[in-house]
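Bumping with the actual sequence this time:
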Amino acid sequence: MAHPDLSPEQRGWFESAAALIDVERLYRLNREITAIHSPTGRERAASEYMTRYLAEIGVEAQYQPMGEASGNAIGRIRGSGGGPSLLLYAPIDTHLDATHDDIPWVGPRLRPDMIPEVREQDGLVIGLGVLVYFVFVHSEGTIDAPKVNEGKAETTAPVQPVSPQKSEREQRKKPKPIPVVKVIGGAPPEGSGATQLHFTKGEKVRFEIETSEPFSFEIKGLGITQSIESTSTISFKATKAGQFPVIATATLIGVADLLISPKK
């Protein structure tokens, strides 16, 4: 298999990697994972399945719980050390399944990728579609690349020094900056994905939706729907933990992912 943009050496690497792909095993894995209903906030079964699968094929794997019903599957293949790390990140959750109440907003009928069941067509495995997917290539030493260290997922965000003159109470009083979700035409700006919003159960959720036109949205899993005419601040109390997508009503596109962590 040739590629015009690859050097002979790179083409050799590509063909060596492609020769290792077991099409039947990949197809079976795709079908089995798609058959597991894993809407946002309820991905535990799918993540546990993937953790078991990675362990069965010899990959260092662990399940990282994010709540009672959600969690991550983490696999690690160690290199020789000393070089940059490659992080492959793909959300395992899907958008919530549609109902007939969503017609005609989604079209004259529900598409196969809106129904929570797996089916095969022309060699394709079809099921609920995921909201977003990413591939990051970073060093483990950057804030963008979550790293697994001694069985714990963490990020290496720089630590801000605390002035000794400020008391702990003064530090707690410092207001938390309000995150901004930019929306253009019912979707995130071109080239960017859904904004990640992080809060803790019990605290007040506050974020700003920046838009120059009327915008309606639904926070799936929380039963919150709202319409705004222009840029507005959204505020409510986080009553339960989980991951909840903020979906544009008109386009059914996720503009933000709201992650509410359990209270420590």
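The tokens above came from a reply further down the thread. Residues 78 and 203 are 39 Å apart (CA to CA).
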